[in-house]
Amino acid sequence: MSKIYSLLLCVLPLLVALSLPKCSRAQKSIAPRDLWCVAKNNAADQALQDAINWACGPGGANCGPIQQGGSCYDSSDIQRTASWAFNDYYLKNGLTDDACYFSNTAALTSLNPSFDKCKFPSSLSVNNGSISSPTGTIQMGPDSADLSSSNRVVGTWFLPLVTTGYLLVTFTWLIQWH
Predict the structure, then answer these.
(1) Which first-to-last residue range defines the signal peptide (predicted)?
(2) Does the CA dihedral 140-142-144-148 come out positive or negative?
């Protein structure tokens, strides 16, 4: 019986350490890439308009470029208009999946949505709380944080917790039956 406990104490920490996600060990090898938050092409126009109204109002997105006379103004294309508002909000609010949701009318893409004179800043243009763009720098509020390298707890710790739980159940079963 004591041999099983000794084995458990030696093997369990090793297995947990090996099951830790790569991001906990070393993330230097992952190259960053440009991401943009854009309107989904299957989103209903009214849902997009409601999301634009929220993003440009209470959401605090800079919607000047999509106003009449702005470099991204296109009254005939609500997808482009929504994409600008969504992307600006996403860049200012931590680059998280939640900041690119808009009632399931938005999604992240690695395809640059810029067109004509309308240049969309990407996730890589966010640096220490500000967004660098060809037209200058857009400052984020002092209470904002650059969360571009943060990870979700579920994605980071799910596998080690499941692995540990499985091993504990297995070793408990072995101890009871042997």
Answers:
(1) 1-26
(2) positive
Closest CA to 13 of 158, 168, 172, 169: 168
Output the CA–CA distances (angstroms, integers) from residue 10 to 1, 17, 21, in the order listed. Answer: 15, 12, 21
Q: Which residues contact 117 (CB under 8 A, 6 or more apart)?
A: 71
DSSP string, 88-145: HHHHHTTS-SGGG-TTTTEEEESS---BTTB----GGGEETTEEEETTEEEEPPTT--
DSSP letter for each residue of 35-49:
-EEEE-TTS-HHHHH
The model's pTM = 0.58
Alpha carbon distance 46, 43 (integer Å) = 9
The pLDDT, as a whole number, for residue 126 is 84
| pLDDT tens figures, 72-120 | 999 999 999 999 999 999 999 999 999 999 999 999 999 999 999 999 9
Q: What is the DSSP letter of 32?
A: P
β 136-139/36-39 pair status: unpaired
